[in-house]
Design brief:
Length: 161
């Protein structure tokens, strides 16, 4: 008899706990809305959440994370190595159209990307800017201002040697 009472009490307590948990669960749609309201911050005029690293791309017609989809160009500088320790490095970014007929150039001081079309010589030129795809160098007023970071390819067996 004690076993039967014990099983009955345990069974009732489990079903009552299950009911409590089910009452506290919100429908799936409500959970998504709450999650979306918590993440991010201010949106720009295109709906891109800038605090989450998104920027509007006129070329892609979408919110993008430049550091994930674009090519980084680092500033060309005359600073010595000692000066580089204290200097902020602010990069430019380039996104190519699928057919490579255009690029969108994102400069540190600009609020939005600049669309530049490819000319007959294979360069991307507009106003004071020229981008050379072969060397990944950006010229401003014919002066080299940004370039792709230099790197050395290594065989995986050479790492750490």
């Amino acid at each position: 008899m004690k076993k039967v009472m014990f099983i009955l009490i345990v069974g009732l307590s489990m079903t009552s706990c299950d009911k409590i948990f089910k009452e506290n669960v919100t429908p799936e749609k409500n959970r998504q809305v709450v999650f979306q309201e918590r993440v991010g911050g201010e949106e720009d005029e295109h709906g891109c959440i800038t605090a989450a690293g998104f920027t509007w791309s006129n070329l892609q017609q979408d919110c993008v994370k430049l550091f994930e989809v674009a090519y980084r160009l680092n500033p060309v500088s005359d600073l010595t190595n000692d000066d580089l320790v204290d200097a902020a490095i602010i990069s430019a970014f380039v996104i190519f159209a699928d057919d490579e007929s255009k690029i969108e150039l994102f400069l540190p001081q600009a609020k939005e990307g600049l669309i530049i079309e490819k000319d007959a010589d294979g360069y991307y030129k507009k106003d004071i800017y020229m981008f050379d795809k072969e060397s990944f160098v950006l010229y401003e007023n014919k002066e080299k201002t940004f370039q792709a970071a230099e790197y050395e390819l290594k065989n995986i067996t050479q790492v750490g040697e």
